[in-house]
């Protein structure tokens, strides 16, 4: 078992229980759900703190921070999310001292500890005690005239903050919007409206947008700029009727896949796609919805949440790779291998001896037919029976089988 990578502690005052508990439970369900279950155990854990440790009005028990003595082993990164309500605004010195100690740790070790506030109301409660702790810092999922603090916004903002925290870089995640400019007359208006809606919603977030017509400057090499930017950040594919038949869309997706970039597709077929492409499979997909008033913005926000979660998964997987330096794995594949990505990896990492080639990727495992396709590529590469493809669950089962 690897050391834990990330712990998220959600904290609120007992008097704010009614407003705070549903938010905390939504975080637990999200980060303990299917989205992150494919990683090695300990990648991300969510805990709550509310009840007093020494009585009704006392602060909660202390939080184990990186470097503290165990057991259990402390996580490499700890984020504390404080839900700011009226009860906390009225709290006494025990709570303020407890939060003050956490703030001091976060200020001293921002690469290991973070303290974030999230308001339970449209306006964050103010008090002489809370102001020095949170007034100078941007709150998570802050409400404004473009965003209401709903569950999707809270989870997306938290996942983005966690991804940047684990990455060790506060540069916002850049979203490459991949789309086709070739449209049929019958669908041109609705396609343009969808792309405009996607761009508008991305601009309302803390994400950074890369869109070719506005991000590539006069005189830039168009192809190099697209490929360079497709290989960083994350990619949102707006898959309309003509998307699968466009060479540049294929090149963008191929570049993203072979660089391990998170991808999510918004499927917005209106009349259908008579061609398809195997390059566009193995991507999480969200179906777009449209009615007489336009495209459903909630679906686009859901796709962005999924994309940001994929970014967090990538950073957690990278961190687990670094922590498992002694584990004999040749390729820590960020996504389940497919013929495209496996062949690209083999080309850049040709086997040098007859030892088994071990590939580890997040769960779930490949199906039998998918594995046969990968085995065919392995046969052509000359490694045949030497290839082993594992996931955290199958790796764990193997370890248990050899334990005395």
Describe the structure.
With 404 residues, the protein is an alpha/beta fold. It is built from 13 helices and 14 strands. The strands form 4 sheets. Strands 6-5-7-8-9 form a 5-stranded parallel beta sheet, sandwiched between helices. α6 (188-203) crosses α10. The longest helix has 27 residues, at 297-323.
How many helices in DSSP terms? 13
The helix content, as a percent range, equals 25-40%
What is the percentage of strand-forming residues?
15-25%
Biggest sheet: strands side by side, in what order?
A: 6-5-7-8-9
Tally of DSSP β-strands: 14
Radius of gyration: 23 Å
Shape summary:
globular
Average pLDDT for all residues: 88
Order of helical and strand elements: EHEEHHEHHEHEHHEHEEEEHEHEHEH
Low-confidence stretches: none
What structural class do you assign from the helix and strand content? alpha/beta
Largest sheet: 5 strands, parallel
Q: Give the terminus-to-terminus CA distance.
A: 16 Å
What are its keywords?
404 residues; alpha/beta
Summarize the structure.
This protein is an alpha/beta fold.
Secondary structure layout plus pairing:
Elements: E1 6-11, H1 17-31, E2 44-49, E3 77-84, H2 86-89, H3 93-108, E4 113-119, H4 131-134, H5 151-167, E5 174-178, H6 188-203, E6 208-210, H7 212-215, H8 222-230, E7 234-239, H9 247-258, E8 263-267, E9 285-287, E10 290-291, E11 294-295, H10 297-323, E12 331-332, H11 339-348, E13 357-360, H12 368-380, E14 387-390, H13 392-402
Parallel strand pairs: 1-2, 1-3, 3-4, 5-6, 5-7, 7-8, 8-9, 12-13, 13-14
Antiparallel strand pairs: 10-11
């Amino acid at each position: 078992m690897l050391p834990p990578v990330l712990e998220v502690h959600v904290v609120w005052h007992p008097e704010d229980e009614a407003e705070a508990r549903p938010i905390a439970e939504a975080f637990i369900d999200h980060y303990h759900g299917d989205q992150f279950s494919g990683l090695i155990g300990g990648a991300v854990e969510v805990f709550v703190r509310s009840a007093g440790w020494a009585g009704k009005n006392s602060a909660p028990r202390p939080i184990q921070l990186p470097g503290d003595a165990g057991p259990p082993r402390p996580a490499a990164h700890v984020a504390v999310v404080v839900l700011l309500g009226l009860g906390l605004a009225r709290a006494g010195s025990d709570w303020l001292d407890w939060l003050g100690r956490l703030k001091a740790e976060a200020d001293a070790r921002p690469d290991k500890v973070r303290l974030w506030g999230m308001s339970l109301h449209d306006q964050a409660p103010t008090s002489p005690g809370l102001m020095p702790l949170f007034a100078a810092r941007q709150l998570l999922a802050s409400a404004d005239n473009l965003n209401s603090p709903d569950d999707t916004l809270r989870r997306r903002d938290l996942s983005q903050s966690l991804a940047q925290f684990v990455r060790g870089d506060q540069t916002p995640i850049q979203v490459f919007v991949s789309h086709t400019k070739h449209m049929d007359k019958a669908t041109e208006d609705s396609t343009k409206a969808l792309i405009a809606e996607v761009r508008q919603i991305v601009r309302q977030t803390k994400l950074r947008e890369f869109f070719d017509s506005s991000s590539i400057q006069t005189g830039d090499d168009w192809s190099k700029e697209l490929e360079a930017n497709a290989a960083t950040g994350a990619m949102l594919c707006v898959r309309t009727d003509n998307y699968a038949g466009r060479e540049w869309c294929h090149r963008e997706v191929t570049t993203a896949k072979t660089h391990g970039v998170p991808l999510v597709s918004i499927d917005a077929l209106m009349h259908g796609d008579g061609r398809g492409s195997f390059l566009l499979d193995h991507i999480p997909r969200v179906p777009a919805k449209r009615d007489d008033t336009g495209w459903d913005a909630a679906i686009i926000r859901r796709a962005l949440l999924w994309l940001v979660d994929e970014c967090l998964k990538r950073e957690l997987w990278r961190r687990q790779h670094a922590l498992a330096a002694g584990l004999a794995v040749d390729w820590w594949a960020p996504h389940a291998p497919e013929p495209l990505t496996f062949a690209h990896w083999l080309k850049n990492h040709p086997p040098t001896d007859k030892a088994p080639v071990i590939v580890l990727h997040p769960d779930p495992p490949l199906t039998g037919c998918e594995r046969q396709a990968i085995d065919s590529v392995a046969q052509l590469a000359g490694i045949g029976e030497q290839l082993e493809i594992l996931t955290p669950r199958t790796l764990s089962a193997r370890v248990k089988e050899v334990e005395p």
